[in-house]
Amino acid sequence: MLNMKLINRDAEGELQLIGRLDTTTAADAEAHMTEAANRFDTLTLDMAQLEYVSSAGLRALKRAHITMRRKGGTLQVKNVTKPVMEVFEITGFAGMLKFV
């Protein structure tokens, strides 16, 4: 299960990810991230309460990153938990993402 909460700060949005970003939640998460990416110049993903990310979740993150980059925006992540950071490091996502 994954809950998402969007915080609107004018040109910047923050999406809090709470739970698990896995095969069952990735499609919905991707839709929300893409919508937010199209809406804001800067999108911050707060991962303080993200427990797990699977390959399907990584794919959703990559698509949000590409959407932001194409429009000249910025996708950034913060408060990454240790288990999620390990996945980012192993898969090379740590080099792609901007950490704040």
Walk me through this protein's architecture:
With 100 residues, the protein is α/β, with parallel strands linked by helices. The protein has a single domain (2-99), classed as Transcription Regulator spoIIAA, CATH 3.30.750. 44% of the residues lie in helices and 37% in strands. It has helices at 26-39, 55-70, 82-91, 93-96, and strands at 2-9, 12-21, 42-53, 74-78, 98-99. Strands 1-2-3-4-5 form a five-stranded mixed beta sheet. Strand 1 and strand 2 form a beta hairpin. The N and C termini lie far apart (25 Å).
Entry summary:
This protein has helices at residues 26-39, 55-70, 82-91, 93-96, and strands at 2-9, 12-21, 42-53, 74-78, 98-99.
CATH topology: Transcription Regulator spoIIAA
The run of helices and strands is EEHEHEHHE
Which ranges are low-confidence, i.e. pLDDT below 50, for 5 or more consecutive residues?
none
Give the % helix.
40-55%
Main β sheet profile = 5 strands, mixed
The backbone outline, from C-alpha atoms, is globular
**Care to count the β-strands?**
5
Q: Report the average pLDDT across residues.
A: 96
Strand order, largest beta sheet: 1-2-3-4-5
Please report the first level of CATH classification, the CATH class. Answer: Alpha Beta
- Domain count: 1
N- and C-termini, Cα separation: 25 Å
Architecture per CATH nomenclature, i.e. the level-2 architecture: 2-Layer Sandwich
| Content-based structural category | alpha/beta
Number of helices: 4
Share of β-strand residues: 35-45%
Going by CATH, the homologous superfamily would be STAS domain
Rg estimate, integer Å: 12 Å
